Amino acid sequence: MPDNIPRFLAEDIGLGDITTEAVIGNEKAMGVIVAKSKCVVSGLVEADHLFEHMKLDAEMLVENGQWVEPGTKVMTVRGPAKAILTSERLALNFLMLMSGIATATRELVDLAKAVNPKVRVAGTRKTTPGFRHYEKRAIMTGGGDPHRFRLDDQILIKDNHLKIVGSITEAVRRAKRYSFSKKIEIEAETPEQAVEAAKAGADVILLDNMSPEMAAEAAKAVKEINTGIIIEVSGGIRPDTIVLYAPYADVISVGYLTHSAPAADFSMDIKKM
Amino acid sequence: MPDNIPRFLAEDIGLGDITTEAVIGNEKAMGVIVAKSKCVVSGLVEADHLFEHMKLDAEMLVENGQWVEPGTKVMTVRGPAKAILTSERLALNFLMLMSGIATATRELVDLAKAVNPKVRVAGTRKTTPGFRHYEKRAIMTGGGDPHRFRLDDQILIKDNHLKIVGSITEAVRRAKRYSFSKKIEIEAETPEQAVEAAKAGADVILLDNMSPEMAAEAAKAVKEINTGIIIEVSGGIRPDTIVLYAPYADVISVGYLTHSAPAADFSMDIKKM
Amino acid sequence: MPDNIPRFLAEDIGLGDITTEAVIGNEKAMGVIVAKSKCVVSGLVEADHLFEHMKLDAEMLVENGQWVEPGTKVMTVRGPAKAILTSERLALNFLMLMSGIATATRELVDLAKAVNPKVRVAGTRKTTPGFRHYEKRAIMTGGGDPHRFRLDDQILIKDNHLKIVGSITEAVRRAKRYSFSKKIEIEAETPEQAVEAAKAGADVILLDNMSPEMAAEAAKAVKEINTGIIIEVSGGIRPDTIVLYAPYADVISVGYLTHSAPAADFSMDIKKM
Amino acid sequence: MPDNIPRFLAEDIGLGDITTEAVIGNEKAMGVIVAKSKCVVSGLVEADHLFEHMKLDAEMLVENGQWVEPGTKVMTVRGPAKAILTSERLALNFLMLMSGIATATRELVDLAKAVNPKVRVAGTRKTTPGFRHYEKRAIMTGGGDPHRFRLDDQILIKDNHLKIVGSITEAVRRAKRYSFSKKIEIEAETPEQAVEAAKAGADVILLDNMSPEMAAEAAKAVKEINTGIIIEVSGGIRPDTIVLYAPYADVISVGYLTHSAPAADFSMDIKKM
Amino acid sequence: MPDNIPRFLAEDIGLGDITTEAVIGNEKAMGVIVAKSKCVVSGLVEADHLFEHMKLDAEMLVENGQWVEPGTKVMTVRGPAKAILTSERLALNFLMLMSGIATATRELVDLAKAVNPKVRVAGTRKTTPGFRHYEKRAIMTGGGDPHRFRLDDQILIKDNHLKIVGSITEAVRRAKRYSFSKKIEIEAETPEQAVEAAKAGADVILLDNMSPEMAAEAAKAVKEINTGIIIEVSGGIRPDTIVLYAPYADVISVGYLTHSAPAADFSMDIKKM
Amino acid sequence: MPDNIPRFLAEDIGLGDITTEAVIGNEKAMGVIVAKSKCVVSGLVEADHLFEHMKLDAEMLVENGQWVEPGTKVMTVRGPAKAILTSERLALNFLMLMSGIATATRELVDLAKAVNPKVRVAGTRKTTPGFRHYEKRAIMTGGGDPHRFRLDDQILIKDNHLKIVGSITEAVRRAKRYSFSKKIEIEAETPEQAVEAAKAGADVILLDNMSPEMAAEAAKAVKEINTGIIIEVSGGIRPDTIVLYAPYADVISVGYLTHSAPAADFSMDIKKM
Fold first, then answer.
1. A122 vs C179: CB contact, 8 Å cut-off?
2. CA distance D48 to D61
3. Which residues of F touch C2 (CB under 8 A)?
4. C121 pairs with which residues across the strands?
5. Which of C42, D42, D54, E114 could bond to C98 as cystine, CB 3.0-4.6 Å?
6. Cβ separation of A181 and C120 shorter than 8 Å?
7. In Å, how far from its chain's centre is CA D195?
């Protein structure tokens, strides 16, 4: 992957951090990044990479994926005060957004796995343009499955494709002509569609926006045809409903993780050295 | 600004939309984008620009900044089914994220202006790396003030700068050496600091994390020194507290708008033409 | 995918096509691209895209994937002589290289399918840096399977991975922790390894550098464990040996297609209009 | 020249080497690159540069341009197993393609120089889009002359230019108006054209697709006009015909070197350290 | 800011410094950069950054902003002769152009400050496309104010805007709707316009192309309305006229600094080490 | 060549032309670009290309390379007022800088050709980083020869190379090993060096910083050896000295053209349509 740090810095700095240029000299400083809300930490690697790019000495005090309480020091950074001040906001933005996602993921994973230890909680492509890689990483830090990073990862035939093709069986037939190296997934809105997809040879079947009962029925019917087929459930999943789908789903995908999880809170305290 | 559409598409598509390539032919189609939650719409221009990039014919059915009810059709797009399917997710991601921000902004603006019609609600730099431009646009669509897009927009001396410089007066003195074309803002954590900043010649004073009462006292003291100085209030502002700061603030800046506002919900329905 | 045409043109042109600038005026011209060797044509779309970029009017006279005899006119292009002359070489380079690959692919596909109509001939990652997309497209034009475009397409555990991990079973166990959306393939050098991979739950098994007899034995053993597992054969496959592997292979992958297939021959004849 | 390594890696890796991520830990390893076919080695500098980019310790065991027998170890690389595995294929692709070209070049150079020690064997612009620089380097490693890297290197008026301009004399007259710093070369298809070009003041004359006898006659006629004019011969040159042109040519340019030379064979053996 | 050094080097080098490649070996050398005209030195940081990029050891012998006499050694650089020779021209181009601007700026600053120690001499946007950052830096080295780096730095309503809007008062009213974080400046061509702008609430008023007397009158009228308004003067300012505007201007902006200041003269002497 | 317009616009605009956004609506306008100083116009093509990029309708009223008097309208542009205002400065910057160079070039060309109609006036590599292409174009518009655009255009062995190599004869011998497609030029500081270069086989000899008399002697000696060798003269050439070198020089190269020629003056008048 290309290094996005220079571009992200450029977005925040523009032509120059004029405040720091105007008021700060050659002082050395130390910054301490502190969690201000309880969260699963994610983004430490990105912050560390940023500080390395700025030629600062950073040290992680906790590990990505760890729960921390408010007040926990998660990272220190030492070097020229100018460089610390100029990169502070980007470091905090990585941490607050990625930890927010990791925390929401971990909460759903824990809820779902309490019901079915084999179930996976996955993300979706409902991500922020340009920031998907980091959002998927945060899901993985939280214990989730990234699902497709891009449209070229896997064949996933959704309702809008089916409206054009007309038939699940025909859609799967066409998909099979494509490379053997990719899995084929079909979105089904009814148990009948799920069964048709299973018979056509889908590797994964996505039960979309079904009630927990209907989804259970569809999953059962599919597994009777081929136990190797993976059942994915999606559609407005929230903490209170995930436990209803977890018993029979292999994968539960949740758009909320990346489009609506609130950020965790972090701040940096700087002092002269 | 460089055109980010190709890069955002590349992030979502990778080497190719293999599903669409595998199962869709030369069919023409129409897609209708429908709001599924009540929201202030933002992102129409970006979706339109994307569709234009894909050589599709798009039509906006509502205006950016308008409140819409669930079920409202906001946009149609016509052309090759392949191109519509390949760009669907990016278009929806613009709409859902930007409308989420615009909606949260509008709600705070309405609350604050009911108390003080002259107050501005502003964003912060707590944005998603690489997506700030769109987040700031969404704030503007919601009726907010974008505040600094970048560090080069304005001089804003924060607590961490002051810990290095040591004195507000000295920091302002240094800042004044920089170009006459930029405003100088100082973050104050106490009314005494606010007064010192005012006397030193700051154009804007940011009252950070003060209680409503303390902020009121600081604002009063500053205006007594120079009525032209702009008072900005910030720090964990939420709907229930914004009305307490609104009476005397010129600007209230809110990180929540860009780091934690939940997405609005949109979907696209496609049919063959 | 980003548009490579500007970069490819820049590589060929540098600062300017000084010959054309120096000796050609505003004349209009027509160029005819003619095949000079028998081949399966590939690269027409790329040449067409290039001419469109140059604002020239191009017309394809044959279809990608079609066998043509020497002397066949495959494309015409009309417009300013300068633009035709400046883009001539890049258009021909696309055609000659991609048609060379498509032709070699078609020859192997025909040989293999005569023995086993269900077998697929696939490419490898032994491609020219920066030109893989086009080489994979040419394989597809020739009737082959592109196989992995990139390392992120599929999990493929090769001998060098196994030397680090130590055990096929352990390697598959680790791979299964990764996303459900990806297939898992294992390279096996003996029938015993193939059996171990099959038992561990691999989706695809690559029989590498085995003799036709040994590969046949391995394939049989694997299918006895799970008929759904895909058998891929690789390792120095040439026209005379492909028929020996074809009877029992699902996929035969051939590095030769992209690293050593000779180019087809094309030229352009230009005349003033 | 911009560093292409990050782009080439991105092409091969995409978002991530998911196999290595999934199955390899923090092990250290050593990789040994071994030639598996007899060849003139080229691409060592590029492989070394790649390994340096990956922060690996590489050591070249032979020199670029050296003949090696099958089984010769040409390079070792030490460091984290992950980084070695992720960069293995790109390193091998550089070596196999560039050594293939260097080997073909050396063979022609040796044949031609046995007849005329002063003759140069040169490449053409019939190269792979995006990879020309490396192909030209490989020709130089093989003892050849790169010829034009780009259209801005030299003025070379070809048959298609002449069809527009109408006259060699007029074409040269126009070319002379361009900068004094560039050589002017004309393609001639008959001895008469060669003579016209010589009289018009060309610095180099390209005898294209002439029989050896006709080319000899043209060369003689040109040298009688001005011994300083360089004679280049081109058009379907192969090992068996190069010796027929070598006696009187100053330069023999061969498209085969870059569009059809078969790759040399290399592999990497990795072991844990 | 992105690092422009690689792009600037690429512009000068193209595919390779063929002279140095052809004639220089592995010799080590030292280069000494010498001023050949009296000037205020600027560009040392850029030259140093370039040499660092080339992995050369550079040492600055004077400071940016210092007056030097012809013959003064300003910098030394040590390392491989090839790298020094390849980067020589770009280093000198930075120095000669930036020192030319710094020198012209210092001369005007000294003239203007002799009359009014508080006045600032500023640049304009009349800069070389792609090189503005360096030209603004040179102005700052010379003691000037950079003024707007870009159109997003500040709102500056010029005559052409007013011809569309129709009224200064209306233009300011519209500008005030934009972010509080930006200053608003109005161009006035008469004292009456200046007064209207002052009353409308402009932060800065640009008196454009007025005679010294008219500008004095306008400045006086503005300051009577609000002493905090900044008065900028512009329009064909040269050394002989700057002293006439300096007494009452806060800022004098001069396009000449960046579009017509003659370069300073520098050369490099290299010797083998 | 890559299209620099987007980058140049980005440099000037940054995130947005906030003045125009804030005060201008959907008005249509016409802008007229007027020369305000006597000059040879250059930059019209670039301004036109910029306006096309902005989707404006532009019309050139004069031709590149034409002398114009102050007050001459050179171009009109029609379309949305916003787009005209946002691109105004960049269009004028192209025109003022390129016309300044073209004017200075034409003046020297006229002086030199009055003495020797065959002499060429050429530029150097003393150009603005990132803007060389345009500066070279302006020289060509003014009737000059661009000389080397980049280090890869031609082999030019300068004094600093000779200090490393030690001998002109040896330097030329090494240069001849490089591609036959490039000319070889040597810088000589004495007639003896010029003679040595001529005997060694240089294509061009650069007489650097010689007095007119010494240069005349060197030129004569060189031509006696080989009349085909091109004589270039350089070193502090100005209008009053060019006529002294013109009688015997083939090329006179002048750094002044690109590093110190004053800009021509242009402005744009806009009115609502």
1. yes
2. 11
3. none
4. C252
5. C42
6. no
7. 30
Choose among A7, A12, A164: nearest Cβ to B270: A164
Q: Which two tokens stand for residue F214?
A: 């010494």
Q: Is the pLDDT of residue D270 over 80?
A: yes
**Backbone dihedral region of A14: left (phi > 0), alpha (psi from -120 to 50 degrees) or beta?**
left
| 8 A C-beta contact, residue A94 and residue A50 | yes
Q: How confident is the model at residue C222 (pLDDT cuts 50, 70, 90)?
A: very high
| ipTM field | 0.95
Query: Does A134 touch chain B if contact means CB atoms closer than 8 Å?
Result: yes
Q: At residue F2, does pLDDT exceed 80?
A: no
Provide the annotated active-site residues of B.
126
Q: If you ran DSSP here, which 8-state letter would residue F116 be given?
A: -
In B, minimum Cα distance to A267 occurs at B160
Size of interface B-D (CB pairs under 8 A): 3
pTM of the model: 0.84
- Kindly give the pairing relationship between strand C251-253 and strand E57-60: unpaired
Note whether D13 contacts C151, CB cutoff 8 Å. yes
Question: What span, in angstroms and rounded, lies between the C-alpha atoms of F135 and C117?
Answer: 63
Identity at E169, one-letter amino acid code: T
| Residue D43 zone, left/alpha/beta (φ > 0; ψ -120 to 50; rest) | left
Q: Which two tokens stand for residue A40?
A: 């699963």
Q: Which residues contact D96 (CB under 8 A, 6 or more apart)?
A: C126, C259, D43, D263, D264, D265, D266
Closest C-alpha among B255, B264, B55 to residue B147? B255
Amino acid identity of B77? V
HSE-up of residue B36 (Cα within 13 Å, Cβ side): 13
> Taking Cα atoms as reference points, which of C141, C61, C134 lies closest to residue C106?
C141
Cα–Cα distance for residue pair D104/D138, rounded to 1 Å = 10
The DSSP bridge partners found for residue F40 are: F67
**Rounded to a whole number, what is the distance in Å from the CA of E87 to chain D's nearest CA?**
13
CA distance B155 to B167: 16
Contact call for F29 and E164, based on CB within 8 A: yes
Determine the residue of chain D that is closest to E10 in CA distance: D1
Instruction: Name the residue with higher pLDDT: C148 or C179.
Output: C148
Per-residue pLDDT of F56-92, as tens digits, reads 999 999 999 999 999 999 999 999 999 999 999 999 9
Cα–Cα distance measured from residue D109 to residue D101, given in angstroms and rounded to the nearest whole number:
12
Mean pLDDT of C199-213: 95
Identity of residue D1: M
In Å, how far are D188, D220, F225, F226 from D230, measured between CA atoms? 13, 11, 20, 17
d(CA A31, CA B158): 14
pLDDT for residue C181: 86
Give the pair of three-digit tokens for residue C179: 């996303």
Q: Are D1 and E16 in contact (CB under 8 A)?
A: yes
Tally: H helices and E strands in chain E:
11, 12
**pLDDT at res. B15:** 74
Helical ranges in chain A per DSSP H: 5-13, 18-23, 44-53, 81-115, 132-141, 159-165, 168-177, 191-200, 212-225, 239-245, 256-259
Return the ∠ at Cα F129 (arms to F128 and F135), rounded to 5°.
45
Q: Which residue has the tokens 């396009």?
A: E255
DSSP string covering E54-93, please? TT-EEEESS-TT-EE-TT-EEEEEEEEHHHHHHHHHHHHH
In chain C, % of residues over pLDDT 90: 90
* A81-129 pLDDT per residue, tens: 999 999 999 999 999 999 999 999 999 999 999 999 999 999 999 999 9
* Separation CA B113–CA B104 (nearest Å): 14
Chain C residue numbers touching B53 (CB-CB < 8 A): none
Cβ partners under 8 Å of residue A243, min gap 6? A111, A112, A114, A115
